[in-house]
Amino acid sequence: MTIPKEGEKIQIHSYKHNGNIHRVWQETTVLKGTRNIVIGANDRTLVTESDGRTWITREPSICYFHAEHWFNIICMLREDGVYYYVNISSPFVYNNKTLKYIDYDLDVKVFPDMGYMILDEDEYKLHKKQMNYPEVIDQILHNNLDKLLGWIKQRRGPFASDFIEAWTARYEFHKSVQEEK
After folding, report:
1. Is 23 a catalytic residue?
2. What angle do CA 37, 43, 47 make, to 5 degrees?
3. Residues 93-106: what's their mean pLDDT?
4. Which end of the chain is less crowded, N or C, counting CB atoms within 10 A of the terminal residue's CB?
5. Known Pfam families for this protein (predicted)?
6. Per-residue model confidence (pLDDT) at position 139
């Protein structure tokens, strides 16, 4: 597996369990790339849905992907604080300047006060049946949901205040470098 380089622009592709494309983020700047972790950032990037509809993200976001955890975390930087949107998903793979993962429907919305809501449980149940998620996948996903909720309560990883400060500063640095070119 290749490793994305800091400063590189990549795409993010989300798939469903059946292999169909779900969503594409056109451009994300890599802030850190290792075999296990990719941290990226984007602002006002074009997103294309599976049905061809497009929209543009509204605020800067720091994105956290891990090759061992079955979730990814989008940290949305809003005027009234950081909001998090977590996709319960497969670990990422990376090739051809594209980070890819399987979206497993369950999502968690986390508010600046670290309160949270689990979303799309009905969609998960429907897709689990339609796409025949194996029982082992169901167990892995629920175990990782529990792990994620622990991270939120403990303010670990992207939920730690210094995470946002450090990676936002790094993103600002890369934006200033791009503007100089």
Report:
1. yes
2. 85
3. 96
4. C
5. DUF402
6. 98
Domain boundaries, the chain: 9-172
Is 122 marked as a binding-site residue? no
Token pair of 29 as six digits: 């700047």
> Which CATH superfamily is 9-172 part of?
FomD-like (2.40.380.10)
Q: Global pTM?
A: 0.95
Q: Is 103 annotated among the ligand-binding residues?
A: yes
- Please tell me whether 107 is known to bind a ligand: yes
Catalytic choice (23, 44, 53, 156): 23
